[in-house]
Amino acid sequence: MSTVNYDRILNPCVKDIKPSGIRKFFDIAETMQDVISLGVGEPDFPTPWKIRRAGIASLEHSQTRYTSNSGLEHLRREVAHYVKDKYDLTYDYKNEILITVGGSEAIDAAIRAVVCPGDEVIIPQPSYVCYEPMTALAGGVPVIIQTDAEHEFKLTPEALLAHLTPKTKVLILPYPCNPTGGIMEKEDLDKIAEILRERDILVISDEIYAELTYGGKRHVSIASIDGMAERTVVVNGFSKSFSMTGWRMGYACGPAPIMQEIRKIHQYAIMCAPTTSQYAAIEALRSCDTNVQEMREEYDMRRRLIVSGFNKLGLKCREPKGAFYAFPSIASTGMTSEEFCEKLLYAKKVAVVPGPAFGQGGEGFIRASYCYSVEHINEALKRIGEFLEEIRQ
Amino acid sequence: MNMKLLKLLSKNARYSVEDLAVMTGMNEDAVKQEMAQMEKDGLIRGYKAVIDWERMDSSTVSAIIELKVTPKAGLGFEEVAQRVMKYPEVESVYLMSGGYDLSVVVKGKTFQEVALFVAKELSTIDSVLSTSTHFVLRRYKELDVELFGEDGDDRGNFSL
User: Fold this and answer.
1) Of A181, A286, B31, B160, which one has the greatest count of Cβ atoms within 10 A?
2) Strand segments (E) across chain A
3) What is the pTM of this model?
4) Identity of the residue in B22, B25, B158 whose CB atom sits nearest the CB atom of A37
């Protein structure tokens, strides 16, 4: 029997992709009882009942076949209304909106539609973990911009200019940001737009947390700024705002010449987004504003609680303005993020994610999700407090 | 009146003043003052635990009694409602639209005790025309709290 040399079979590009930075903690936590976790990046609310009911009804009506590649026309019309209403974005449902399998597929397809081998993709970090590997898979070169606490983890025009080269093809704009909670306000985006308007660079704006901003600050999409819609693909979805993670529903909006290419990738790789989920999503966009509002208010209260909790414990924590994560600094403990998280997990069975899981710029920070009940958050904070007491002695 | 504060308290009356202050963005003294004021004004009428009595061996029985009543001139249903609600066995009294007038929730130790209370006390009130007793067999949800089934967190410990 001859053995297979898998190294000769496998794509080195894929082999080089690092597994996610939390794998190790995940494995440890799995073996422990009574772990109290702040590690999860998904809402704790069930999908609003109206949405679930719409999914059920679609099944009862045997709506179980493929939809058009782009997604149900009805849903695309609703998306067009929704993004107009919420973010002042104007897209034609016929050829500028694509329904995807979560925001993830939209990001992947958008990168693949434009990145050629050697093209540079600018990625501000700390940020969600998918941009770098997806860029690498497309043969692109990730160019990382480290954002920092001092600038509220915003992308500054200076940093952007310093990283632009003739090979720059894409700028990823991951705001509101997981894990930092940073947002880009209108005036921040204006400065970025100013730089990009003269260049042939595509912005992939990952706005999955757009509905989760706090303190009365509404999310602003870069595509709503003059001259930017034509050079931006907006990625959004239902997972975070409507608490629909498992339904796998997202969408991409962009200029027709780009969307038609993204649609080809989607057509061959995916065919169409899940039909049941598409029917459910129509209901979400149509009638669930109040549910989103309620969830946002609930997150907001938890946000205040957890931020104040970390600061009281001496872990300096800025006020996150979006998403549902606190990103406190653990620098005062003298430990690395990884050390801190590992010791905390062993000593107090509290699970948080080390900042570097989201890029090297995350060193010195931990990510704590507040997708948990107040009681749960208080218990976790109490245990973290005990842990800090013990290590300070 | 502070809607945010009320909403939080209606969800969990045991939140500490400290947590309430942080979550509403008020200071602690203001929270204390507002709560005291709302209690004084009768806006907040009490703080109670939501108990799943069925888990206790000595469980209680409750019933919803539909009362048909002759309203009194000038007083409407007030007079009879006032009388009914004074009984300690009565948990709540509502004026209803539709087929009957007052809905009365009655608690007791046994079915018999509740039935006797209705027969002896409620049905003998002058303006009460008829009663109809419906015993509660099982509580699935009480005061917004689900008592039935485990609604645990099925998410893992980590996700990105």
Assistant:
1) A181
2) 36-37, 97-100, 120-125, 141-146, 168-173, 202-206, 232-237, 250-253, 325-326, 350-351, 353-354, 366-369
3) 0.89
4) B158
